Structure formats: structure tokens, C-alpha cells
Amino acid sequence: QLGSSISQLRKRRQIACLSSSRFESIPRCPDTCQCTASLQHSMAAAGHTDGAKALMGGPQVPAASPAKGAGRSRASNSDASIASYQCSNTAQVIVALIVGIFVSAVFYRFSSSLSIHSIYGIRAPVLGETAITDKPRNDARSYLAKELANGLEVVAVQDTQSLYASFALAVRAGSFDDPPELPGLMHFIEHMVFLGTAKYPDPEGFDKFVAENGGDQNAYTADEATVYYVELSEEAADEGLDRLADFFRAPLFKSDFVEKEVHAIDSEHAKNVQDPGRRVYEVMNSFADPASPVGRFHTGNLETLYTNPKKKGVSPMAALKRSFAQHYCPARMRLVTFGSKPPHEQLRVAEEAFGKIPTVGALAGDGTPSCSKEPTSYAEPSAWPPKRLHKWVDIEGTTPHSTLWLGFQLPDLSKEYAKQPLDYVLWVLGYKGVGSLFNVLRDVLGLADGLGTSVDGSSVGTTVSLELGLTDLGRDRPDLVLDVVFAYLASLQQQGVNSALHRSIAEAGEVAWQWSPPSDPTSVASDLAERLTRLPFKDLLWGDDIIRQLDDELAMSLLKQLSPSNLRIGFVDPRPLEKGKKRGIVPGTDEIQSLNWYGARYAVRDLDKVFPSASARWSGWAQLQAGGHELEEELKNRLHDLSFPTDTELLPQPPHPIVGLPQESDISLELAAAKLPDVESEEAIAHPSEQKFGFPPERVDPQDQMLGDARLGADVPEIWYRQGWRSNSPKFSPRVSLSILIRPMRPAGSFEVSAADQIRMSVYFDLLAEEIDTPLADLGPLGGSWKMTASTSGISFGFGGLPTALDKTVTQVMGQYSDKASEPTAAKRFGRVVQDLRRSLGSFSNMPVSYAIEDRNLLLTPGEHSREDMLQELNKLTLGPTTHALQDLLLSNPLQLTVLAMGNIDKGKALEVVRSVTNHVPQLSSDSAAARAQRDQLQVEKVTPIVALEKPVELRKRNPRPGDPNDVVVVSIMAGVVTVEMRVVLGILGDLLQRVAFNELRTRMQLGYVVNAGGVQLSNVMAISCVVQGNVLKADDLEAAVYHVYFKVLPDYLDSLSSKELAMITESFADSLLQKPFQTSTEVGHFWSTVATGSDCFHLQDEMLRFLRTSVSKELLKQEWQKLINPSGGVRAKLVVKYFGGEDVPSRPSEENAKKAWEKQGITGSELELLRREYKETLVLHKADASTRAQVLKEAASGKYLATDLHCHLSGKLLPVQTTAGSFMQVQQQEQQQQQQQQQQVRRKQLRPQARVLASGDVQQEEQQEQLQQQQQQQLKQQ
After folding, report:
1. Which distant-in-sequence residues (6+ apart) come within 8 Å of 936 by Cβ?
2. Which of 199, 495, 705, 904 has a 20 to 30 Å separation from 334 between CA atoms?
3. Could you tell me which of 226, 225, 232, 271 has the C-alpha nearest to residue 90?
4. Which neighbouring-strand residues pair with 739?
């Protein structure tokens, strides 16, 4: 999935960002609130990497074809990515890049963008409707399409299991359509349509409506498409769709909001300026033909959208309306709806809402240009004529990593989607098996440490990119890297397309597509809407994913175009770009430029001026006779300066055809469905989660766990099994999942792990990963997947995919582990891995707010260490101790085995696989008598403890990202060890806080582009947190603004909350708990969190629902918020992190100056007195590391950690209030309320109606109370 995430983000060059960056939020479903922070590897075993070191293998077939227009792009294997991917939810981009790029350095992931679908329970289409039936076998969804009378195309998707509706509208117009004199105008339109319409004029009305109905909305502007998408509760779908339609029927475009929204775009651009990948991407496009839109500035900012137009007498609003009229007509619009309602009913509602848009568009007339059905093609004038290719671009990088980016310019291939001709090209370039291009560059020559491929397509043409992360040697000798690449390309061109390989790639893609898992509602709607801008109805579900027509000649013609004359090379190097100064072997230049709007320093030269005769040499290699040794000898001569054995093969070899692919007849679904309780049974009524997930796993009898004459593990292992899946009903997945976790048993209280041990294990695992990933590269396309993670807390193995591939996957993975685990590397590899890790630890390329959150967590979590401490230990590390890290730090301890087996597999087979795995870990069954005797004094750390703050802590640091002017504040109020009640109350309050904080701090106050707030969970502890990043106020003033939200804005919102609004909020919260999983990974994660922690939490969601339905009220929310944020005495358990832009960290303001800042934000009375008490008690720090954590533990927590208990049953306790003495006072609920909970037995077949009845009853009762209060208040006024 992570691999797919990066591909999804790379589909288009996305410009727009409407919502805040979501760096922290508490998941409503408690299974994902992992309580095992120190066991990141255990979550990886269940499909959650959470930042852990993870080595993975998965379906290694090409991602969706790059033969696409409208801004489509794709990445596979990209760990050296420099393209721009900016979606409206920035955090999703960041997380996907951080994790997806890292994972893809080790494996390919097939980008099956959607789990596609079949007609299920649909009436026969009527005239004008088209049933879309060409879809995967595993797809249980129904699809119906129609073109409305005004030309708008609609596809309705039915998923009978969904409690949520989603819809997306794509417009065939994007940033390429900006007027040259108003860069960013199309992006500006995308922002402005949200700010009120004729029917719904409230500028915040849409946001409020969606949030109250448990949803989210966003949009993005790509090169040639703009996509708007919404998800919300099914009950609100009709009104939500009508509200969205009014964006395009009658947008108000009020001039009052122009300046404010331009400022929001300006903040967005300020964020982009600091993005290293974005800067490089913009540089590489900057020297396109000026007559083409490719090289223009697309985001826009205050200068281009407001200041400059005003100076020239141009009205931004008038220009906006003209562009809207010119591009936003129904014939250019593509709508997708998703929900549980029948498709024909969805089409009817869509037609009522969107059929009213005039054919000519909403703002046609008054001299505006007409809107043509077909969008503008930007194929001519060519963006990349010959004189703008064959270029070498020096770029001054902003991170320690060096990258070589090769971009080959090909024609627009969007009409060739049935042939997917670039699938073959990407496969042979990106393959990472033995003898591959990557294998030679990394393992043989030591020139590169990462390789990625990507494709970006539009009407301008198609760019095929090869991205290489360079080692120190590769950075100094990029010419040798290029020699190897072009020697390989020459070999491919000499040999021609391997028809058998091409056919096997198509077959592997077909298998992956047929059994692809379903996506969530938002992903389905937004992805299909964008596809509709390029594909016809009938091909919508497969046109991006599989090869239907093999065309070797077309693939060969594209291979031949991967030539020096058709190329742009970007050399990204952190060494300063100075006039006339060499960087490695690259000669200096005097032609240094600074990129407008981004400030990136670069220089563009003809390739022959940098490496004379290189192009001629590379072109000549392609003309050599196939099958001879001339090319090999030529390459050896070029590489003679490097050290390698004389018999080493230096010419990369293309991959062989994929063999062993499963046939449809090989795949049985006999055990694919999970067992469910009868809907009328006592079990179903008491545990509604079992209708959602099926029966929980059962622990296997120890007698079934025998391994020959020994048990599986020296201690009694914990092996759990559950047949089948609940997701994708009634078509169940054939997949299997085995999560295997081996953890050490250590003395109680052994929380801390030294930085030396952490770095030692980290380097060990990197070395092991590199040793085994190459031999296992051929496993991916066969339908299996595997992952391995290791840390000082344990080692895990995860296996999944189709059951036909399970045995082979387990045998080969564990065989490689056995062979390489004891001594995983040679000295040459060790030096390169250490250097790469050194660069990573010294790089701060992500948003500063992410590092601020890191620092907060470090101060609260034992075993975490700063980058500086890790670097210090890394510099001391040697090869010898590293190769024994696994044995010394992990396997030498008594071990505990934990296993969860799920899916389309019987118990006996699952145990057989577990035995196969444990046979390769002999330490599991070789405990000495002395070790066994110690077990009573040992334990497995299953829940990481969190420091028990008793008073405030403040960290003041310089923004770690060089040159970044932004200040950051993170204000976290610790609530304590989480209870069932707390999950519900803080879950709801966190949702409301996110809404009001975003509207206040970002929309109204314009403090920065990054604003997020809500509930967060650290291990088994919950907190309320707000993060802001911006350059408008300094961090001390940002903190005061956050307190304004905590003390004033949210309490005022709660006071104004009506019964109807509260009912909608609680109902949407219930929906999130009742929604059946869409993917098998969700089911695994749900059960794994309980299995891994050894807790009794299988029915946690049932307890949450029970409390939600019986106890949540407006008064309760107000009471608990007041208790947490403004306690009557003492101080709060509070941790504040402040980053300051610039070179210096200012001194902490005096109490009097701080008081002025608080009062400026309207804080008075008891809130002001609380802040003054906290000011005096605050422990102020200037760095975050293990030593300052020890200081916090001693001076702010009395040396105590919070309990590691897991509360998964109703206790009658609400939020614990932490006093200055550090004790927790539990607030007991009324006995009457507890009795009501115990006695409540509402017997209904459907869970949803039950929730509705209770909610409506609550509304009626509360409305009566409100009316009575209003009457009393009126009487008082009269008196």
C-alpha cells in the first residue's frame, strides 16, 4: 500500500492545497491507536511500518501505465525522487514520501490504483445509462455511467457495505490554463469556489456541513485537471452533493475574500519553497520553451495574484470569473459518486444537482470567452524542442544527499493506454534482481544507493525519469554512473524487446489487478473522476492498470528514444555551486542562475560542454553488434579506475521472463469468508463489532504448537488464528496474512535503550536488507508479499498475498535470512551504508513541524534518541560489533513468540508456515536451563511507558531546517492513560478542535499554511495537541494564539452547539466505529493491536459505542474540556515545543511580556491565572535528547512513568485530572447511568437504525430542554 501511495501521489503534478497539514490526529477506530510505540517492527509485521526499519517485498509488476495525459504520472521504486507532488492534504504527501520512498528503495509495488468492481444488485440500465462490467474478479462494487443532457459525465459506484458516501468532480482544466500574466489563477479558482454560493452563501458553510457529518473535503489543481472531492455520512450525501454542485452552478466569488485567500495561497507557496524535491522539479522544467506552459509558475502567490495585477490595474476577481467561464462548463466536468444506495438512485440525485448547470457554464456571457467541450492541447509549440534537450543541469541541493535525475522526453502516449507500452520500459529499468542495473551500480561498483523510475504525462508529452541516489563515489564520478546506464540501454536496444518477458509482465499485471484490494470511498471517487478526464466509460476500471494489447514494436520504439539527444540530466549536489569551481569531476561554470519564485541555484549547459564526446560514445554503443563482447569491454575500459575483480560482469543484464504466475484455477476461496454471529443472537447484540470484523481470532491450543519434540519457543508461544475476511463482502479476498513477532524478555523496568545499541541495530538491519533484497527480487510478481523488521525491541516477519505463493515466499525469504543473518555484509557495503545513514540523520528536508513533534515524543518516550546522539554513536561504529548486533542485542535473551494468522488459510497450514519460519530461528528452542529459570523475573515490553508529567515543560530550539524562516509551535496537554470513555470524549472533542483551530488560526488569522489540532495518542496515553507552522508570528505569540483557541474559541463553539448538530457529530462518530473494513490490512491491524499487546481489547469498539450511545452529551463535552484545559487548581501536564526561524533563539519572554501576549489574545480571568502559575512552574529546555528526557523525568515527573495498563472496558471513569502532586483523580459516573448501560438490550437486526433511534430520542429530549431554558431566560429578561 505504501508503494501504491507514492504512485498515487505521483499521478499528477498537484498544485492545490486547501486543508491544513494533518500531522497529528487521533484515529477514531482504536485498533490503529497502537500502544506499542517501541515495537514499531510489530506493527510492520501487521502491515503498519510507523517509521520502523522495514524490508519488504511485494507484487513487482509495473505500476499503472504512464501512457496517460491530463497530468498523469507514476512512480515505482523511487527512493531518489525529485518530482513535485503536492496534494491538498500536505501531510499525506509527506508521510507517503517519507515512508513510500524508503520502502520503494527495496521493492517494486504494483500501482493497482483501485480495487475495481462488478455489478451487484443493480437493475438493468435504462436508455442513456451504461453498466461498467469490465472489472476485476475480486470487485463486489457496482458501476453505472451516464452523460447528462448538459454534457457532464457521471459514474455512480455502489458499495453495499459502506456507511459513507463520497463524490468527486474533475474539471478538464488545470494550471496549464493559467493566463501568462496571472500565474496561479486556476489554483486560485480552486480555492475560491469553496467560499460561498448563491444557495449556500456562508463562506464556512461547506466546511461546517461536511465536518458535522463526519467527513472531509479537499481539492487539487494539476497540470490539466482540477479535482474536488468530499466524503461524509451517507445520510448527508444528497445535500452534500447539492452543495458541491452549487460550486459550479452559482459560485459567489465575493471580492471580500480575494486578499485573504491569496494570502492562504502565498503561505502555501512559502511552504513549497522549502521543499527540496519541489525546488529541483521546478528547476528541471524552468528551461522549457517559454511559449509552453510547462516552465511557468503554477502555484501563484501574493505577488502574482494580487500585488502585481493591482499595480497594472488588473482585477484578479474579473480575471478569475473570465477563466471560470472559459473552462468550467459541464462538458469539461466528470463526476463520480460513491455510496451504498443503488447506482441508478445515485445517478438520479446527481442529475438533479448537476443537471442544472447551464451547458455554457455558470458565468457565461458578459463578454467572457466561450467554454469549449475539448480542453486546450499543449502539444504545440513543443515544450522540449531539440535545442532544449541534451542538457546538463547543475543544482545546488539543500539536503546532504546527491541525486542524478535523467529525464527522457517522449511523445504523448495517452491514446495507447490499452498497450501500456512503458510498462516494459519501466520493468527493465527498475528491476532490482541479480545482475540488474541497480545491482551493478550499488553492489558491484558502489556508485549508487537508490534507484527509482517514474513517468509524467500530459498533452505536452511524456517524461520517463530514472532517478539515482548517489554514493560519495557516484557524486564525484557521475560520468561513470551515466556510462553504466547508457551501456545498459545500448544492450537493451541491441537485444530488442523480449516478447516472453513482455507477455509475462502483462500476465503479472492481470493477476495483480484481478485480485487487487478495494480502496476507500474518497480514493475511489477522486481517482475515478480524474481517470474520466482521459478514459471512456467502458475502459475506466482497467485503462490505467493492465495491458490488453501487446505491442513489442511500440515498446521497442520507446526504448530507442532513451538516448542522449532526448535527455535532460539534473545533478543535485549539496556542495556549493560557485563560479568556475568543480564539483567532483564536473567542471565549474560561470552561468549560475537563481530560479524565480523558488531561489534555487542552478546552471544549465549543453551536455557536451560538461563531458565532451560522452554523447557520441553512448550513441555509438547502441550501434554495436548484439551478442558480442565489445560493449562489455568498452564499459570495462571506462571503469578501469574502479576496484573490482577481473571476472566481474559489469554490463547489467535484463530480467528474465516471470515464471510461476498463479492461474485463476489455482486460487480457492473456500476459507476466504470470516465466520459471523447470527444477527439476532445475544453475541451479535452484545458485540456489534463482530458484524463489522467477524469473530475475533482464537488462541491456538498449545498442544497444536509442537515443533518436533520442542515447543515453538522456549516460553509458551502466543499463536492466534482467524479464518477468512470480512472486507469486500460478498466477494472475499483470497489473500492470507501471517504476522510473526519475536521479542526479547528482559527485567521489568528496562525501558531505556542506548543510542549506541539503537544505531548498531539500525546499521545491521540496513546491511541485512541489502544482502537479501536482490536475491528475492523475483518473488514479487508471483502474488506473494513479505516484510521483515528489526529493532532492539524485537524482530518480525510478515507474509501475505495469494496462498499459491506462500510456500515459495516463506522458503526463500527465511532461507536468505538464515544464510545472511549471522554475518550480513562486507566492509565495502558497511562504509556505504554508514555514510548513507549519516546523511539521513544530518538531513532536515521535511517540514519543521514534523521535527518538532519528533522532539516532543522524544522527551516523553524512553529509548528514543536525538539525531545528534545517533550521529555521534554512528561515527564510533565499526563492522565487527555490527555484524553480531542481532545476536547480542536480541536473540541472546529469552524470547517470546507471538503470531497472528488470518485469511484464506486453514489452521494446520498456518501452523506449518509458522514452524517453517521458526525453524530458521534456532534461538527460539535453545534456551538453557538457567535462562528458563530466570523467566519469572523477566517480561516482554508490550506497551511503552510515557513520562508522567506533573508540571509544564517548554522546549525552545532553532528551526533545524537551514534557511527556513518559519516558526513552529506544538502545544500538547496530556490527558493521562486512555480509557474507553476518554477515547470517545477526546475523539469527539479532537474533531471539533481541529475544525475550530483551522478556521481560527489559518483561515481567519492567517498564521500559516500548516495548522492542525485534535487528539493524539502516545502509546497508551492520550493528549490534546495543536500545531502551527508559519512566518507571521514568532513561536511565543503562536503559543498565545493556540491558548486563545483552547480557552475561548472551542468553549464558545461548544456553548453554541445545538442538539441537532451534536446528534450529527455523535452519529458520524458512531459511523466510524460501525463501518466495515474496506481492506484486509484494516482487519489485520484491528486484531493485531490486541494480539501484540496481550490485551483484552477485541471488543473495545463495542464498549465505545455503548458509552457513545448512553452517556455523551453537550454538558459532558463542556465539562471534560474545562477539566482538561482549565483545571480549578494546580498546573497542567503540558509540553510545548517551539522552533524559531532564523539564526538565533530569543530569550524566553518575561512573565509580564508573556501576560501581554496572552491578554492580546483575549485571555483573562482564571485562564490567565492558570498560565501565570504555569509560567512559574515550567521547566525550560534548549535541546531534546536522552539527557534532557532524564531531566524531565527527574524535575517534572518525580521520576515516574505512567502506568502501562490498557483499559478496554467501560470503567465509569472519565478524563483523569492530573494535579501538581502527580496523582490522578477519577470522576465517577452516576450509578444510575451505569445501570442503564448494563440493562440496555435493544434487539434489532441492523445496527445503524439502532444508533439512529437513540440519537433522535436524544435530540428530541434536548430540544425540549433548550426550549424550556429559553422560556426561563425570556422570563428573567422581562423581570
Report:
1. none
2. 199
3. 271
4. 798, 900
Mean pLDDT of the chain: 84
Mean pLDDT of 212-232: 96
Cell matching residue 327: 473552462
Of the candidates 577, 574, 568, the residue with the CA atom closest to the CA atom of residue 602: 577
Percent residues over pLDDT 90 in the chain: 73
Strand 710-711, strand 784-791: pairing: unpaired
Helix ranges (DSSP H) in 198-305: 205-212, 237-249, 258-273, 276-286, 302
Q: Nearest to residue 639, comparing CAs of 438, 506, 480?
A: 480
Cβ atoms of 235 and 1090 closer than 8 Å:
no
Residues 1055 and 1067: their CA atoms lie apart, in Å, by 19
Altogether, the residues listed in the chain come to a count of 1279
**Could you tell me whether strands 1010-1018 and 1021-1030 are parallel, antiparallel, or unpaired per DSSP bridges?**
antiparallel
3-state secondary structure (DSSP) of residue 1091: helix
Q: Residues 666-676: what's their mean pLDDT?
A: 92
Other CB atoms within 10 A of residue 74 CB: 29
Rounded-to-integer distance, Cα 1092 and Cα 897, Å: 10
Which amino acid makes up residue 292?
Answer: S
Rounded-to-integer distance, Cα 133 and Cα 17, Å: 34
Q: How many CB atoms lie within 10 A of CB 491?
A: 22
**Integer Cα distance of 236 and 163 in angstroms:** 11
Of 1150, 1131, 1263, nearest to 1197 (Cα)? Answer: 1131
- Distance, CA of 1077 to CA of 1088 (rounded, Å): 15
Total Cβ atoms within 10 A of residue 1199: 10
CA 721 – CA 738 distance, rounded (Å): 9
Whole-angstrom distance, CA of residue 1054 vs CA of residue 74: 45
Give the type of residue at 34: Q
Residue 306 C-beta-side C-alpha neighbours within 13 Å: 14
What is each CA distance from 602 to 574, 884, 1240, in whole angstroms? 12, 45, 70
> What is the structure's pLDDT at 503?
97
Distance CA 631, CA 606 (A): 26
Categorize the per-residue pLDDT at 128 as very low, low, confident or very high, splitting at 50, 70 and 90: confident
pTM of the predicted model as reported, rounded to 2 decimal places = 0.87
DSSP per position, 951-971:
S-EEEEEE-SSTT---EEEEE
Tens-place pLDDT, residues 1201-1237: 999 999 999 986 665 544 332 323 233 333 333 333 4
Predicted local confidence at residue 761, as pLDDT? 95
Are β-strands 953-958 and 1134-1140 bridged in parallel, bridged antiparallel, or unpaired? parallel
CB 144 within 8 A of CB 131: yes
**All three cell numbers of 317:** 476577481
pLDDT in tens, 1100-1145: 999 999 999 999 999 999 999 999 999 988 999 999 999 999 889 9
Q: Are 247 and 201 in contact (CB under 8 A)?
A: no
Q: What is the largest CA-CA distance in the chain?
A: 106
Between CA 1277 and CA 1279 the distance in angstroms is: 5
Query: What HEC string does 680-708 produce?
Result: CCHHHHHCCHHHHHCCCCEECCHHHHEEC
Say which DSSP state 1057 is in. -
Contact between 1183 and 957 (Cβ < 8 Å): yes
Residue 1084 backbone dihedrals phi, psi, to 5 degrees: -60, -45
Instruction: Say how many C-beta atoms besides its own lie within 10 A of residue 512's C-beta.
Output: 27
Q: Do 868 and 1185 touch, CB atoms closer than 8 A?
A: yes
